[in-house]
Design a protein that fits this description.
The protein has one helix and 16 strands. The protein is mostly beta strands. A hairpin with a 2-residue loop joins strand 15 and strand 16. The N terminus is likely disordered.
Length: about 210
């Protein structure tokens, strides 16, 4: 009987953990982006228990709809737990975008996300022109390894005179270099943090998220 009661309490606590998440706010930086600006979206999340460690990632851009996911593992500590999920977006063509964020939680060992997601959205308006004309391609490429100490390979066929740009989480250009045709190995000197890497060639743009750990 005691074992059944303990299991019941554990199950109840797990269910509370899984479903006790909330999206409090969105912060878009810069607030009025141009087509030349990378965009950072910070999602303020709240959980009914802690700790609430998690990761966030861009799931895809389809036309004017942007999908992102935050996945958190919640513990048994009975406190209100706050965490900010940061999503980096590449420079986008002029227009109005619907940024949709799916917040998932999980529990257990290992942590298995199993909640019904909390979904909220914010509108991002990009205005102005960047002189590049219509962007023909705006998709992701792979970086290996990631995280890295600064040296990595890019899983993308590089055209002659492609430009690689690295942006900080606040949208500042921190490094830029011209790539040779078929170049795949990149060496950067950057402080610890999460960056956005953009490859441009004529009207094509490709991007990826880069984490530096020294």
């Amino acid at each position: 009987m005691k074992k059944l009661y303990t299991l019941f309490l554990f199950t109840c606590a797990t269910l509370l953990n899984v479903h006790g998440q909330n999206i409090l706010s969105f912060t878009v930086t810069p607030s009025n982006p141009s087509p030349a600006d990378p965009i950072m979206v910070v999602v303020e999340c709240e959980f009914s228990t802690g700790s609430c460690d998690g990761v966030a990632m861009l799931n895809g851009i389809n036309g004017n709809e942007i999908q992102a996911i935050g996945s958190h593992c919640v513990g048994m500590l009975q406190v209100i737990c706050d965490d900010n999920d940061t999503i980096m977006l590449p420079p986008l063509p002029s227009g109005q975008y619907n940024f949709i964020f799916n917040l998932l939680t999980g529990s257990g060992f290992p942590c298995t996300p199993g909640s019904i997601p909390v979904i909220d959205s914010v509108t991002i308006t990009v205005t102005g022109t960047n002189g590049l004309g219509e962007i023909k391609n705006n998709s992701m490429f792979n970086i290996m390894p990631n995280p890295t100490s600064g040296s990595f390979e890019i899983g993308k066929e590089i055209k002659e005179n492609s430009l690689l740009k690295v942006f900080s989480p606040v949208g500042k250009l921190v490094q830029s270099l011209t790539l040779k045709q078929f170049q795949t190995k990149i060496d950067l000197t950057l402080a610890d943090g999460i960056y956005m890497v953009l490859i441009e060639n004529n009207n094509e743009r490709y991007y990826s998220r880069l984490q530096i750990i020294n």
